[in-house]
Records
---
Amino acid sequence: MGFTHVLLHGHRRAGLAVAALALPGLLMASAASATASPVAATAVAGTARMTAATTQAGKPTTVQPSSSPGARTGAAIPAKPRGLRENAPVSTWTVTLTANPNLLWPTQYSTLTATASTDVGPTPYYLRIYDRTAGDYVVTCATGTTCSTPVTQPGQSTHYYVAVVSYASTGYPPSGEQAVSGDVGVVWHGVNLTLAASPTTVPVGAASTLTATTSQNIGLSPFWIEIFDVTTGTNVALCGSGTTCRATVSQGAATTQEYIAYLSDNSTVYPPPGVQETSLLSFITWSNLGWGVSLSAPAGTFGSETVTATANGEVGPSPYYIEIFNETGTRLATCGFGSTCSMPFTPSHGGSKLIAFISGYSTAFPPSGTVAASNVITSYLRIIR
């Protein structure tokens, strides 16, 4: 069913007021149950039942290493020690810089170490490390041949650092520069995080499984995979290691619940602190009316594509519509007749996420009167090279 049906809302036949809410072929008991559950009741959540993942112990503790003795962090300049006799001018200076480790999780520390070829103490120069990415000095040492300091970032980031032997100027490049190292990069990496529900539409009281998946094991990270029921603000799963985290959820009344996964600090507060990654929303609908809907589109396209939502029955004789939304909650299509609803769509290069519902005629997200939700699909606009 194409976009031509989008405007048919005002022309639905008057018999809808007495149309059966359930699909043709359902048992009389199911039809009676459907009649007893008006559309308004689908927005009232029943008592949730869940099986949460077991909390994992033994997460690594982040400890901040020390800087070199006498070093000053940031833009602060340490005093030169008194009584040192200045050496003869050095004709050639060299300086190197290392980072250990240079690939780590956010909030963890990397130690930067600058090494000069000569002790800067008996000279007018300082051994310094500069963050090219942030545009700030991170540490300055007035004596010795080495200068080290820990650095960290709160989130996913890549920073490039350089070491210099120079005067204690505030700008960069500094005045009196005698030597400069090559750039050293430190990567605070993230992970991909997805959340899927299966099945997405179940009878009232039945169970559905939520699965959050990361692209790498989080066991050595300071973070946790957490799954929340957005509708109630309740934590339903917490996992500290591995790449998957599952929760089994159920509702005792007709409803549609939203769920989301985070990679974050360990917390039952919604949303949790220290969020590093956030999944897209997933929806699960509990309904005894027997409706179901799926959504399909090409995984990638070089232009426009066709997105199709398919219901397990004809929506024409019912008060329901097939509706398609994007990940930001904008309704893209609605169809009031047939069992399919198709639309032309051009995804983004970064990937567009879409979901379909069988529901009342609604622009809310999720739409009011939802009786079925589809899987979330992702489609990409490919680049022609």
---
Amino acid sequence: MGGPDAGAAEMLSGARRFRRPFAVPTAVDANAALAMLVAFGGQVGVAGFSMVAAVVTSRVLGPSGRGEVAAAVNVAALAYLLGTLGLSPAVAYFAARGTIAYPVLLGNSLVMGVMLGGVTAIATVGVATVFPAVMGDVPSGLLVLGVLWFPFTFTELYLSYLIIGRQRLFASNALNLVARVVSLLLISLACLAFPHPATVVVLTQGYSVIRLVLNLVYMRRMGFLVRPRVELGAFWTKLGYATRGRGNDVLNFLNMRLDVVLLNVLSTPAAVGVYATAAVISELTWQPSLAVSKVIFPRTAAAPDAGAALATTLASTRVTFALTVLVGILVGAVGWVAIPVVFGDGFAGARSALLVLLPGSALWSLSRVLTAALSGMGLPQIGSVVAGASFALTITGDLLLIPRYGVNGAAVASTVAYAGAGLVAVGVFARTTGTRPRDSVVLRSSDLLAVTSGLGRVAGLLRGRWS
């Protein structure tokens, strides 16, 4: 198996297919529309269960307890992101393209999950011990409870992306939903019996164990658990791809969660609890773009027709942005009324933070879809440029605004950074593909016709599959 240079050459040749001029069809593939519909349904389900879990933990633990959980989980999530080396998208990419043998992808995923997960857990506990300020006023024991699961969590991640790379999107979403339902039930029951932040941290991270078991059962039934092989050359090829998009993964996470970490250091767990509530509600607007990006990435990587793939990306981005704006308006209106009622009066301060976060969240949907398409084209490093610009705005805004304005300052910094990511992504995508910026943003009348036609085709496909 070739090394990093071979992988880079293959990605470059793939990326050139997407540079215009070529004939770009106007119709969107019905199978792609079906996949996006399934993914969107899965994302909505996951978001709904996550919201219920947030309400339960907020009601039981209050702002301070909710803040402790958010801080511990986010620090653990940062360690998780760094430790996985960004290899999960590489697993999906090469599984979709078929340029690395499947038994090798399976074997490497199993070995990497256990080894990298164990090493990362040990390293995280060590760093927290040497630098206790990382956790602020949050007990370090909560972090230990969060990282103990890492060998399972890492393995689950790689196998989940292997399933996605094999275009089993419906199964991936179904497995995710089942795991979320079981996790929510366990969290709810445990919170009532043992109302402590440690309970929530353990069960939140334990979701991955449930998903790992479900993944293995599904893969066995589908014949995907073949005799695995481990090849070092394949690891280097995947790492070469992952390195190109590594900045995108890390910086995007920091754009999403650095505000929580800094708020915990510069303020109080109660402030973190209030802000985390506003953030989790605003992230409901991300569901359309998350669903579309999950489909765009592997389909673009495997696309035989560059023109059709680009047409699908552009139309999907325009429709997704319009839908996200509508969802944002609805979330803002409902959230303003519902937050004190559902979460409690102690979380009323989350209302203003929510309204500040929503405009940036809508624009960030553009970045989600377009950088996923670029990664599928073999250009994950471009996503790092977009995320880097956003991160510069995040860190600057957080350090300037949180000390003075607290929760609302963190919200302003985040919404500016999200908006910056969306606008930069539009410009970079247009330059890379030879299209115009408005091709990704401005909804067209033909899009509405395409959506109507696509829904009809989806209905036909569904009738054909389940009739």
---
Amino acid sequence: MQISPEISLIAGLIALLAGAELLVRSATKIALFFNLSPLVIGLTIVAFGTSAPEIAVALSGSVDNHTGLGFGNVIGSNIFNLLFILGLMAVLKPLRIERKVIRVDIPLMIIASAGLLVLALDGCLSKIDSAIMLLGLVLFTVFTLRRGKKEKNDFNKDFRESWKTISHGALTLQFIILPLSVILLGWGSDRVVDGSVVIARELGIDEFIVGLTIIAVGTSLPELVTSLLALVHQRCDMAVGNIVGSNIFNILGVTSVMTLVSSGGVTVTANNLSMDLPVLLASSVFCLPIFLSGYRISRSEGVVFLIYYLVYITFFAVVTATDNFYGTYVRISMVYVIPSVFITYVFIVLKLGKRRIKNQN
């Protein structure tokens, strides 16, 4: 029986909501039982679980040596996570960022993004590159878990009481629910992507726009829904940790697995090197000064994040659709992108100066 794209889309969204809700609940209870902070769970279990759609796309493409789809999906999803999801969450509710995220996790994400760009400079990601990324993922996971065990939790009284009442039987149930929620997220994301692609084609939207937006956004829906639900449950630390951890896992985990499975490695195009990878690195670096400007993302800064994502999508569409790629790239960069970034950084510096003057008084 042929399922209409509209039904596929609705069913996928329902599965995403259910999977994300189960994932946040089970991850929080596991964190309480093992005395781990929600931030650590967000950086590891939740982040890795919500990257399941990216893994599926990468593996399915690598088996047939169509690694371009998977690699582009990783880059697009990470940019979407940083600029759109963080921006949307901040617009809905200003996000308070923990100091350890700014001092440790954000720099690690920047290093991972920069490392990917360096490894890709020769135009190909090889098996050796894959081994380097896998090693980085293992070190990141071990470091995060060990750090989590040393940290003192700041749970409120209600959560401490809940921790005391969780039995080993209930814990076993949570470990059953956790993979089921990941399966729901993966299945739901797949349905959303399939349904959206068919609808977009029926509306006559170009293929490259579908690939840039729907596939990247579709596979990032678990991160979006999970982060929003974590925000609803007053888990800002888990919401931000989910985004940062998912981006690190996408770079070090998904890309490395995709490279290992593919017989010829991953080919990196000139467009990837000249625009996509630099934008990914710039988006990661862009987070640091904003977070440092008050250890929070305000609503106005969230709007800036969203505007930058829309600019990137528009920029990519214009440049890709133009024959003179390099000339268009340089003109748009000089006229809009560079001035926009400069103005943003001036705004941040002024904000930091105002804050210091206020503290001195």
